Amino acid sequence: MSLPGEFPYTRGIFPEMYRSRLWTMRQYAGFGTAEESNQRYHYLLSQGITGLSVAFDLPTQMGMDPDHPLAAGEVGRVGVAICSLADMERLFAGIRLDEVTTSMTINSTAAILLAFYVLTARRQGIDAAKLSGTIQNDILKEYIARGTYIYPPRPSMRIITDLFAWTSRELPQWNSISISGYHIREAGSTAVQEVAFTLANGIAYIEGARSAGLAVDDFAPRLSFFFNSHNDFLEEIAKFRAARRLYARIMKERFQAKNPRSLMLRFHTQTSGASLPAQQPDNNLVRVTMQALAAVLGGTQSLHTNSRDEALALPTEESARLALRTQQIIAHESGVTSTADPLGGSFHIEEQTDRIEQEAMAYIERIDAMGGMLRAIENGYPQSEIESAAYRYQRTVESGEQIVVGVNRFEMQQSEPIPTFRLDLAMEEAQKQAVGEVRAGRDAKAAARELAALELAARGTDNLMPHILACAEAMATLGEISERLRTVFGEYRRAA
Question: Which CATH number characterizes residue 215's domain?
């Protein structure tokens, strides 16, 4: 058996693991206006988080400004509303971007939000080359499991590979993608499917980047991954180990990567939101603790712990603090950080690791035979597999074969109302007014000129990132930039 820090990295990507450096402790947060979310970030930083993680609202994810008719009722609800450089500056007011790492969960509009972020840093006087963080930028899982896509898959891949090329030159410490199995698992996949479809998506991105002329070792060291940590404690630990080993072998054997960092699967973990029921929400503290511990024992580089009340509303400050304290207690009191891969060598863990790797590889080979992940998505294959797995699991819950404490066994009547977070719904009108002020206060001719240049670039072969950056600097809005790209690329419609 190889040691931690040795190929194929089954036991961890670093020899010392948490003995030399703990994982980054994040708390995914964002709601309402930029000012409201900024207050929550300052609070979380004061409580000990070591990295920011930004949640964006659905209009931002779908390329719509808050005054778009389809944005009505969704502005600031499931994340923060960001539609211009001015919003991004308010979001990070008083936070030096060269002193924190920032993860942004955004996909279809990832290039636009990254442009806003880079310009915000520049206005703070920061060299963009010093920025460290991650942009999710994973569009393929949107077609598979989540649904916040805008453009068809092939032009979306072009935007992603353009971002790869640009960040490799301009943001050398930035993770240009976080290839996400999290949402695949939340949609109902098995652990094996989560690994298989996530790595198959990774293969598609790598092949797309190589087709665009990028050498694998020029961009692969900055690829990162994002996994779910679910309830089956031992299976989850084995899942992380299997994913790491399988990825290392794929990168070495399939893509002939030479840089050791290209072979290392670096990943963020989030505990499973779908596993946290509304019934008896305090029980979710126990679930999250086990899921977080599985992620740590599995060797994660970054971790978000969900809050107990997320099935009811956005987390309260108290719930977010308790979720963070869970990580801190594991890190500083449990003793599990004193050795790398503490469960390595366990007969059960090693058998599960082998099984998950083999079954995931079988899925990848089937996808290869279909012509790759893009073709498989267009044919609906991973979507169908996930839907079937979700249906089978739900049947086990409804039959009582799978016990969910507080839901189908050990139920209790809730005697008192549970305090939950409440949004100020007036903020939607405030956001509409704010975007109107941005449009009224800018140089309209400059914004129009840069948007026209972006459209021309999209019709050609130029890298889109410098044009998106120029549009953002001219105070073009997220909706306006997205609309120009829609004009060229069209919109994706999933077949019925």
Answer: 3.20.20.240
